[in-house]
Amino acid sequence: LWFTSWEIVLKKENRIIGGLCFKGCPDEKGRVEIGYGMQDEYRCKGYATEAVKELINCAFSFNNVTEIIAETEKDNLPSHRVLGKVGMEKYEENEKMFWWRINKI
């Protein structure tokens, strides 16, 4: 599970439009990182938001997962919107990147 990647498929076209994954097992604090990407023509249409929400729900269904993190480049505004819409908040940054997180409630 933690080393699996999934394809995001647009059912009506039976077309792969993106992908998402966990970037390894939860660490000793219960933190797991997610990653995702979309084909350009399918960005800003809500598909990534829907997929990331489901990935978060999947991760939080495991008792040992307490926090989900992600990173984005500072200029990747569509990805910032996705992470904000699913409830993640920025918690760290450097010159090029933002780091985001959401905690299990």
TrEMBL record:
Annotated PANTHER family: ACETYLTRANSFERASE, GNAT FAMILY, PUTATIVE (AFU_ORTHOLOGUE AFUA_3G00765)-RELATED-RELATED
GO molecular function, one term: acyltransferase activity, transferring groups other than amino-acyl groups
CDD domains hit by this protein: NAT_SF
Family annotation (Pfam families): Acetyltransf_3
PROSITE patterns per UniProt: GNAT (PS51186)
Name listed for the protein in its UniProt record: N-acetyltransferase domain-containing protein
Domain N-acetyltransferase: 1-105
InterPro entries: Acyl_CoA_acyltransferase, GNAT_dom, N-acetyltransferase
Originating organism: marine sediment metagenome
